[in-house]
Structures are given as structure tokens and as C-alpha cells.
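Hi team,

Below is the intake form for Membrane-flanked domain protein from Cellulomonas fimi. Please confirm the fields before the structure is written into the shared record.

FORM ID: S-0412
PROTEIN: Membrane-flanked domain protein
ORGANISM: Cellulomonas fimi
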Amino acid sequence: MEVTEETVARAATGDLFDPLGVTWTRVSPKLAAARLTVTAISLLPFLAATVLLAVLVDAAWLWVFPAAVAALGLWIGLLVPRQVGALAYAERADDLLVRRGILFRQLVVVPYGRMQYVDVTAGPLARRFGIASVQLHTASPSTTASIEGLPPQEAARLRDRLASRGEARLAGL
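The structure came back. Fields below:
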């Protein structure tokens, strides 16, 4: 990659997570709905139990617990769509970029020649929401990357494309 003044300026501003010339593909917003459904399924029993306890004991201070559970649910409800909006991937000529995170940002670069295999998975909830996940495996366990929340057709296309690019790059070694 050629180092230009724009590259140096971008690096100086600290934007390490948006390389020049990269077109990012965002994941499906259905991922947010799936994650919020899991949150609701997890928090509703706690909310019901704390409300029941507050009603049965009839002590005003016990309403702090249902309020805390509701506040946690509200916080997660505001945070999850932003987290999903920060998930993106980009295919370049020699590697795949995966970006995630709001506060703690992460950019994973996986060279096609290092990929060993590509998984596509979709559990019952993911299938219900019409999404799937693509996971890339390399020789190093710390270099695996996953892209959640892809429409099934895009996940299949990406799997096939990454596998063929990986085989082509590996064959040249």
C-alpha cells in the first residue's frame, strides 16, 4: 500500500478502523431484533420474580429491584442497535476486514491465504429472524473472525467466495 499524505493524516487523527478505499458492508438489522429477543427472554423472568416479590412482601423498598431490571433492559435496548450498526465487513483483494465495537473498537484483518475453513451457522432463533453467521478459521485460534447477522443468501455467497479465494491464495504458497 502506498503511503500518501491522506493516509498519514488519517492515521494522525486516530481513525485506524476505517482504512482508505474500503467499502464496508453492514450486517442485517434483524440481528438487533434477535439480540433484543434473547435479552427479553432472559430478563422477563427476573422482572416477573422481582415484581411478584415486591407485591407479596408489600415493602416499598423492594420495588428497587424491578426498577433495576427494567433499567437494565432499557439500557440494553438502547445499546444493542448501536452495536449492530457498528458491525461491518469488507472484502479486499488479499484479505477480509471485520469491524465491530462502539467503545472498544476492533478491526480484524484475515488474509485469504491464512484461512483454513469457513463455517456458516444458524441456530433456531437466527433462522426465525432470517439471519446466519459466517466464521473464518485460521491456523491461529486468536485470528478467527466471525460475521453475525447476514442474510442466508449473503452468508452462502460469502462462504463460497472466501473458500475459493482462500484456496487460490493457499495454492500459490
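SUMMARY LINE: Strands lie at 25-26, 88-91, 95-100, 106-111, 115-121, 132-138, 145-150.

Thanks, M.
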